[in-house]
Amino acid sequence: MHPVLISIILSITAYLIGSIPSSVWIGKWFFNTDIRDHGSGNAGTTNTFRVLGTFPGIIVFALDIFKGFLAVSLVYLAHQYIPETTKYVNFELLLGGLAVLGHIFPIYAGFRGGKGVATLLGIVLAIHPIAALISLSIFILVLSITKYVSLSSMIAGLIFPFLIIFIFKESIISLIIFSIVISILLIVTHQKNIVRLLAREENKVRFRRDKNQFRSR
Prior knowledge:
The chain is mainly α. It contains ten helices and no strands.
């Protein structure tokens, strides 16, 4: 098969993987609930924790991370790219970007998805696991202290380009740009959260489930 055709097929596959709406499907299948009709209306990890509870939230978080990781791992099927080269990393970033696009605009769920934070984590875990794990540790630390997922996500996102540029001194320009874009996107997509944080109106994650609110099937 022609290398260009392989790249196109893998790119489409990455989008379709990213489009898997884990929070929507779990909510509908097990709780008879569309989480987009409750809480913040967002089909992401934070709203899953808020609407469905701790265990479903953890499952959705893990699945969304895996989506990003799996999408980037499709690069192993593109044998025309040599590992660790600029073209290889560029294709990884393309696959990851398409997975995030799928998460935000999922074809399986009426193009109404989440913000893609967990999927982004899966992407960076596949591309630069050490920097990703450090950022994840910071996320968990901030979340355990503040209980604000939005604040934890933004701080972890801001730390990531710092790690890439100054700690690991990466030389691939596209990876550096990607790390910076992640930070900017996290700030842009969390503007409403920032307003609520400043007004002290942001909802904290409660690691429990109100069993009286929803009933499983």
